[in-house]
């Protein structure tokens, strides 16, 4: 029983402390009243009857205030009965009823049987309007202090709080029909017997089973059932590896023989790439929901052991599916994320993802989060793994209600999950279900947990499985018979055995069966491109001009723009008249032309609307009307595809993961993420390593996401200079030692075989073409672009319409086109370079008058390496020394990547000399003078025609 403590929501604790001892008679009078009198006595404090009226209703609210705010602290949540879910065994004094406590408030035991009129703010009475104090407390304890612990009173919306209270306080709400109980039992049978079957057949295999939280399968199915009932047609799931195979089998309903095939070490993969372990794979499946008889599509996103990395990916994929369906309110598409307790509290990407939940261009209109709370992380006790009471406390930042539930009470779990699904589809907000459970085995099936958690695992070994406990309960109450229960078990065991037999007939393992994002119609029936060609990427001049005209104007009337922006628009207008473009205008034309062709374009990142370097200005802001904006790109043509440009939160990990997921949904969209500065991708490295670089190899999943990484040594310091190209090149999968066969379709075949494309464009036209090529290719690969900073306004970094009109294409290599090219036999040195340093080299060459002696060739595409074009250039200048020049330090940048490839293509007959900055630990200096000195030094070396005489390679 719980003691009443004065913590009313209407007066506050401070006001009530004034009651003792001077106003104790007022409190006594209130506590003995059965309803408000016609008149209220006066208070010693003054205030008269209004004060007493306030006191009366405040007191009536006290019991429920205590329980609904703090009841979860004493709820019986741990199935093992040995731990406290909130890491604190202390029971708050205001939740203890003792005679001493009653006496403190001048209450007697007999007062517990006094009848009280219930306020309209509570639902515990049902149809009753008065209850005894004893019954009030009993009902509150039954609601808030048993197997469900509710955290929701921090939500600052009265309607939402009342909605939750009604769902849990109303008497009799947690009643299930016999049919519902039988369905729940059948789902538990499938969940548990699946794990038992795997344990019998592959006892020495890691599978990260669900034992100890078998209730998660019926929990997820309940969420899906309820959501389907409310109109959801597409559910996208993300989860760690624990229980994934069970979810694939019993929630997504993947063929069991395909799962069992994964355990056969003798089967050979028929697909390209390395594949991944079975408990990392995903799945896509359309089926009928048997509870609602409605079609539903379920997609489980593949992800690695970086547990929570999949969270933003799922959100991005969900957002894209909603966008393409026109489902702005999330009525048709939703996401479910399953988490582990230690990861939910410990992984920062969880926080980053939560903070996307209400942002206009990132919201998915609510996610149901299910935490499998093992009460342990690998071997780490939760008291060593988090500082917060619960692992779920991070969800409070977005006012998400948190429902803790004892996972050994299946009916409580089902009710909580049903309410969670209804909450999400009613309020379009996140909600968390915390399944407090245990992990029957160690971190995996080969692990020994007794080393580190002996007391916990002694109790776990004694613990009766939830299936047996629930079956015994239903048998005892007559809902099912023992025979029916045993027949249900035998039926599913037979299904598993038959599937096991069929799995032995599978000769080849196809990872394509595990795709989580199929693109119907994009590839042919065998999953290969329809053709291995790429059309020219140029566009008609009238289209260029039209886009340029819109880019240099304001489509809306009476729209006041900033005077500085007026100058920028006039500058664009002048360029159009001169048939030239700068970097920003080239990007505008690439995007606009794709929109005309029906390709959705989405650009996301920190400050991308204006551009970090104030060059883009894709969103115009009215200077006189707050929050009135204009996106001219959406006013190009009446029937164009939509353009989305959105400033993101100050997150890289979460936002890049989101955009990756968005790009998964459709191949007919150009999805770009721009880092504020190139090296800021550091904090998103997990997404790059685990999903972008390796995604196709592990999961045969094509993805066309584009990373825009501002890069360039301009003396801005080590954190604003290098996008670390060496990292991307090191992860590129083209073989430096393999001499390629130069076929007619060499360029496209190279692109098809690579894991991603890495470019550093030196001209706006190159940037324009590579963006368009990204969509016109018959397949999708990630594209890494090292974009410029100083070149955005460099007077020489402009391109003519002639380089962008119909018939033109992306040039992987831009050869020398000056005096040196006209007399190649007289050239003494051929300098290869990429990106911004080209302009420094041209300027230095001109100042030294070496235009005829030195040729400069630019690599626009670095990976896959343009072997064919490099060979042509080297052969053209047969008598020239070959030099690679870069502005980055020698141990960074491109040299370690290009050097062995030059050796391969030149058969080691000619060395490729390095010119650039010396090796260093930091990517750039923060001292402007040091930067200029090192720049001058390597430029002098580049044009010193005697620099390498007498040296051996």
UniProtKB/TrEMBL annotation:
**Function recorded in the entry:** 2-oxoglutarate dehydrogenase (E1-like) component of the 2-oxoglutarate dehydrogenase multienzyme complex (OGDHC) which mediates the decarboxylation of alpha-ketoglutarate in the tricarboxylic acid cycle. The OGDHC complex catalyzes the overall conversion of 2-oxoglutarate to succinyl-CoA and CO(2) while reducing NAD(+) to NADH. The OGDHC complex is mainly active in the mitochondrion. Involved in the inhibition of cell proliferation and in apoptosis.
| Organism whose genome encodes this protein | Equus asinus
Q: Report the residue ranges that make up the Transketolase-like pyrimidine-binding domain in this protein.
A: 581-794
The identity of this protein, by name, is: 2-oxoglutarate dehydrogenase-like, mitochondrial
Q: Required co-factor?
A: thiamine diphosphate; Mg(2+)
Q: Which UniProt keywords apply?
A: Calcium, Glycolysis, Magnesium, Metal-binding, Mitochondrion, Oxidoreductase, Thiamine pyrophosphate, Transit peptide
A molecular function GO annotation: thiamine pyrophosphate binding
What's an example GO BP annotation here?
tricarboxylic acid cycle
Q: Where in the cell is it found?
A: Mitochondrion matrix
| Gene3D superfamilies, per database record | 3.40.50.12470, 3.40.50.970, Multifunctional 2-oxoglutarate metabolism enzyme, C-terminal domain, TPP helical domain
Q: Which reaction does it catalyse?
A: N(6)-[(R)-lipoyl]-L-lysyl-[protein] + 2-oxoglutarate + H(+) = N(6)-[(R)-S(8)-succinyldihydrolipoyl]-L-lysyl-[protein] + CO2
